[in-house]
Write a structure and sequence with these properties.
The complex is a heterodimer of chains A (113) and B (579). In chain A, 42% of the residues lie in helices and 20% in strands. Chain A has 113 residues and is α+β, with helices and mostly antiparallel strands. In chain A, strand 3 (69-72) and strand 4 (78-81) form a beta hairpin. In chain A, helix 3 crosses helix 4 (86-99). The radius of gyration of chain A is 15 Å and the shape is globular. With 579 residues, chain B is an alpha/beta fold. Chain B has helices at 18-31, 72-81, 113-118, 123-131, 134-144, 156-165, 186-193, 195-209, 223-238, 269-276, 305-317, 319-323, 356-363, 397-402, 421-435, 441-458, 464-480, 484-488, 491-499, 501-510, 536-540, 566-570; strands at residues 5-11, 38-42, 53-58, 62-64, 172-177, 213-219, 254-260, 300-304, 333-340, 346-351, 373-378, 384-387, 411-416, 524-526, 546-549, 553-556, 576-578. In chain B, helix 8 crosses helix 11 (305-317). The chains are: A alpha+beta (113), B alpha/beta (579). At the A-B interface, helix 1, helix 2, strand 2 and strand 5 of A face strand 2, helix 3, helix 7 and strand 10 of B.
Chain lengths: 113, 579
C-alpha cells in the first residue's frame, strides 16, 4: 500500500465530527444488558430523527457500573453514564441529547475536553 | 444551553443526605440567579470514597470534600459566581491509573479497523517496516524493559532475540489467549475491546523474528472475542496489514485462530503448542524452550495478549518513554481484574510499583460493606495471598514473588474477614486437581493429597502432624512437577500457611473456623433470651430442622440441620448464632 493512501485513510476518519453516543458492548456489558440499551438508543434516535451517531465500543473498565454509555454533545463535556437501563437510556436521549441537561444519579465520570 | 457549568454532588459517606443537599444547591443557585449558567446534578460516582458529601465542579475539575449544608451557599457564591477555589475545602484527586494496554478499550469500535487507524493504529507497524531492522526492534524492546505479561515476567526482547537468531525455514508467532484463572478477564477485555492492537503486536513480532505465520490460541468460552478477532483479521487482510508483501515491504505474514477447549493446562506454553498441533494438551519438559523448538519443532515466539498489546505503543512513543513508567525491575503498566469483596469490581491498569493498598482503597473504593480487609490474592491458582499488613508493598514481579505470590496474568481478589484461608486454599487446590492433565505424578497425586489434607483440616479431623505432611507434599510438588501448573499449584497453600498459620491451628486445635466458612465446624443455635419467638427462622428453614411454636420458642435440631445459614440471615434480632 502506498504511503499516501495510508495518510488519506487517517484523514478521512479524523474529519468525522459531531455528536455521538458510545455503548460498551463487550461480554461484561452485554451480560449487564448493554444490548437492550443500545437497541433502545437506536430506536429513540430514529423515532426522534436525531443527528447523532450511536457507536459500539469495548469495555471501559468500570465493571461495577455496567452497562456504560458515553455521551458527547458539542459544547458539553463528555459524560460517562453507568448502570444504564432502558428508562435511563430514554432519559439520556430526552434530557442530555435533546435539552442538553445532564441526567441525575447515573453519572460515573465526566471528561472535559 | 450548552457551556453551562456543572456541579456534581455525591454523598460518599454512609449517610443519605443527597436529596437534601440537592435541593439546597438548587435553592442557592436560584437565589444567586445562576440557574441559566449552572446545572446541578446528582452523580453516581466521583472516584472519591468515604469523604462525606463531595462536590465536583466542571469545568476546572475542582473537588470539595466533607461539605456541610452551611457551606453550600459559600460554594455557590465563591466557585460558581466568582470562579474562586475555596482552598480549605478542595482536595487533590489524582488518577492512579495509567492506560497503555487499555488505551483504546472503550474508545474505539472493535469491529471497525478505521476507528483503530484513527487513533494511530498500525502506525508503529508502518514505522518499523519502513525504517527498522529486526535488530533495531529488539534493541528498542530491550530499552523499553517490557517483560512477559502472562505471569512469568521473562524479558520479551530476549524471547524474540532467541527465535530471531536461529536459522529455520519456518518460524511461528503465537498469542496465548487461553485465559483461565478464576476471576480474571483482562485478556478477554483486550481481545474484545481492541483486537487490532494485538494483531499489530503480533505482526511486529513476526517481522522481528522472521516468521510468516501466527496463531491466536483463544479459549472457546470467549465467543465474542473470537468473533471480533476473526473480523479484525479479515479487515487487516483487506487493508493490506496482513498477507503477502505487507505495506510494500516484501514481508509476508498471516494469522489464524485456534480454539482452546477450556483446559487450564493449555495456558502453559508447551501444552498450548501441543494443542495447536492437534495433539492432546500435555506439557513437555523444557528445555528446549519454544523459542528454539516450538510449534512443529520450529522456533516459536509465544506471548500473552497483554504483552502483544503493549508492543505498538512502545514503538510509537519509544522504548525510553516506556521505561520511565513502572519500578526499577518491572517497567510499564499492568492490567488487573480487581474482584472479590471490593466496592468497585473493575478492570484497572496501573503503573508497576503502585502499592496494593492504593489499588484496593483508592481505585477499588475499599472493601464492600465497610468490613475489614484480610488479604489480597494475586495470580490465581498459581499465586498466593498477601495479608493486610503487607499491602504497602509495591507491586512488581520480584516483590510479589518474595511474598510467596506471583504477578500472574492479573487476577486480584480482595478478601475480607468472612473469607476462611483454609477454604480459599482448598478452593484453589481443588481447581488445580480438576485441571491437572495427569501426565506427571507429583502434580496428579500430590495435588489430590494436598486437597485431602485440606479437607481433613476444614472438617476438624486433622492433627498438627498433618500440617507438617501437607507442607512437605507442597514442597515436593513444587520441585518435582513437570510444568508450571504443578510447580505453582501449592502456592496458595504455602502462602496461607505462612501468613495465616494461626487460622490453620484454630481449625485443628479448637475445631473452629473464625470466618464461618467451613460448614463442618459450625453449629447454629438459637439464643432463647434474645429470641422474640417470631418464627421467621422456622418458616425459612429448608430442611425442617427448626421446631417449636410462637409460645414456647424454637430450637434447632442439629441432626437435621444442613448449615445453610438461612436462619442466621433472616433473624432480625441476632438470636441465631453461629459457633
Amino acid at each position: 500500500m502506498e504511503e499516501n493512501n495510508f495518510n488519506d485513510m487517517k484523514k478521512k476518519n479524523t474529519d468525522e465530527k459531531g455528536n455521538w453516543i458510545k455503548v460498551g458492548l463487550s461480554t461484561c456489558g452485554i451480560a449487564a444488558g448493554a444490548k437492550d440499551v443500545f437497541d433502545t438508543l437506536v430506536f429513540e434516535k430514529e423515532k426522534k430523527n436525531l443527528n447523532i451517531e450511536i457507536k459500539r465500543c469495548g469495555c471501559a473498565g468500570m465493571c461495577y457500573a455496567e452497562p456504560l454509555v458515553e455521551v458527547f454533545i458539542e459544547g458539553m463535556p463528555r459524560v460517562i453514564y453507568g448502570r444504564v437501563d432502558k428508562s435511563a437510556a430514554i432519559e439520556i436521549i430526552n434530557r442530555h441529547v435533546c435539552s442538553k441537561e445532564l441526567v441525575n444519579d447515573h453519572i460515573y465520570d465526566i471528561k472535559e475536553k | 444551553m450548552a457551556n453551562k457549568k456543572i456541579v456534581l454532588i455525591k454523598d460518599t459517606g454512609l449517610g443519605d443526605k443527597i436529596k437534601e443537599y440537592y435541593s439546597l444547591f438548587l435553592k442557592s443557585v436560584r437565589e444567586e440567579n445562576l440557574q441559566d449558567q449552572v446545572q446541578v446534578v446528582r452523580a453516581a460516582d466521583l472516584g472519591v470514597y468515604n469523604k462525606g458529601v463531595v462536590v465536583k465542579i466542571v469545568p476546572g475539575n475542582i473537588i470539595y470534600a466533607h461539605v456541610t449544608a452551611e457551606q453550600i451557599h459559600e460554594i455557590v457564591v465563591q466557585s460558581l459566581k466568582k470562579n474562586n477555589v475555596i482552598k480549605e475545602l478542595a482536595i487533590n484527586v489524582s488518577d492512579k491509573q495509567q492506560r497503555i494496554v487499555l488505551r483504546n478499550c472503550g474508545v474505539v469500535d472493535p469491529e471497525n479497523i478505521d476507528d483503530y487507524i484513527n487513533v494511530d493504529g498500525y502506525q508503529a507497524l508502518k514505522k518499523i517496516l519502513s525504517s527498522y531492522t529486526p535488530e533495531k526492534v529488539v534493541e528498542e524492546l530491550k530499552v523499553s524493559g517490557l517483560r512477559g505479561r502472562g505471569g512469568g515476567g521473562f524479558p520479551t526482547w530476549m524471547k524474540w532475540n532467541f527465535a530471531r537468531n536461529i536459522a529455520a525455514d519456518q518460524k511461528y508467532i503465537i498469542c496465548n489467549a487461553d485465559e483461565g484463572d478464576p476471576g480474571a478477564y483482562m485478556d478477554r477485555s483486550v481481545l474484545e475491546g481492541d483486537p487490532h492492537a494485538i494483531l499489530e503486536g503480533m505482526i511486529i513480532a513476526g517481522f522481528t523474528v522472521g516468521a510468516s505465520k501466527g496463531f491466536l490460541y483463544i479459549r472457546a468460552e470467549y465467543p465474542l472475542a473470537i468473533k471480533r478477532i476473526d473480523k479484525a483479521i479479515i479487515q487487516a487482510q483487506e487493508k493490506g496489514f496482513l498477507g503477502k508483501n505487507i505495506l510494500n515491504s516484501g514481508f509476508d505474514f498471516d494469522l489464524e485462530i485456534r480454539l482452546g477447549a477450556g483446559a487450564f493446562v493449555c495456558g502453559e506454553e508447551t501444552a498450548l503448542i501441543a494443542s495447536i498441533e492437534g495433539k492432546r494438551g500435555y506439557p513437555s519438559p523444557r528445555p528446549p524452550y519454544p523459542s528454539v523448538s516450538g510449534l512443529w519443532r520450529k522456533p516459536t515466539v509465544i506471548n500473552n495478549v497483554e504483552t502483544f498489546a503493549n508492543v505498538p505503543v512502545i514503538f510509537l512513543r519509544g522504548g525510553n518513554w516506556y521505561s520511565q513508567i513502572g519500578s526499577s525491575t518491572s517497567k510499564g503498566t499492568k492490567v488487573f481484574a480487581l474482584t472479590g469483596k471490593v466496592r468497585n469490581s473493575s478492570l484497572i491498569e496501573v503503573p508497576m510499583g503502585i502499592t496494593l493498598r492504593e489499588i484496593v482503597f483508592d481505585i477499588g473504593g475499599g472493601v464492600l460493606d465497610g468490613k475489614k480487609i484480610k488479604a489480597v490474592q494475586t495470580g490465581g491458582p498459581s499465586g498466593g495471598v498477601i495479608p493486610e499488613e503487607l499491602l504497602d508493598t509495591p507491586v512488581d514481579y520480584e516483590n510479589l514473588q518474595k511474598l510467596g505470590s506471583i504477578m500472574g496474568s492479573g487476577g486480584m481478589i480482595v478478601m475480607d474477614e468472612d473469607d476462611c484461608m483454609v477454604d480459599i486454599a482448598k478452593f484453589y487446590i481443588n481447581f488445580c486437581v480438576d485441571e491437572s492433565c495427569g501426565k506427571c505424578s507429583p502434580c496428579r497425586i500430590g495435588g489430590y493429597q494436598m486437597y485431602k489434607y485440606l479437607e481433613k483440616i476444614s472438617q476438624g479431623r486433622a492433627s498438627f502432624e498433618d500440617l507438617e505432611k501437607l507442607e512437605s507434599i507442597c514442597n515436593a510438588t513444587k520441585r518435582a512437577s513437570l510444568c508450571g501448573l504443578g510447580q505453582t499449584a501449592p502456592n496458595p497453600i504455602l502462602s496461607t500457611m505462612k501468613y495465616f498459620q494461626q487460622e490453620y491451628r484454630e481449625h485443628i486445635a479448637n475445631k473452629k473456623c473464625r470466618a464461618g466458612k467451613c460448614v463442618d465446624l459450625l453449629e447454629y443455635k438459637i439464643l432463647q433470651d434474645k429470641c422474640k419467638k417470631c418464627g421467621v427462622c422456622f418458616r425459612n428453614c429448608p430442611t425442617g430442622a427448626i421446631s417449636g411454636n410462637n409460645k414456647e420458642g424454637f430450637i434447632i435440631d442439629v441432626s437435621k440441620c444442613v448449615k445453610c445459614g438461612k436462619c442466621y440471615e433472616v433473624c432480625k434480632f441476632d438470636a441465631v448464632v453461629r459457633e
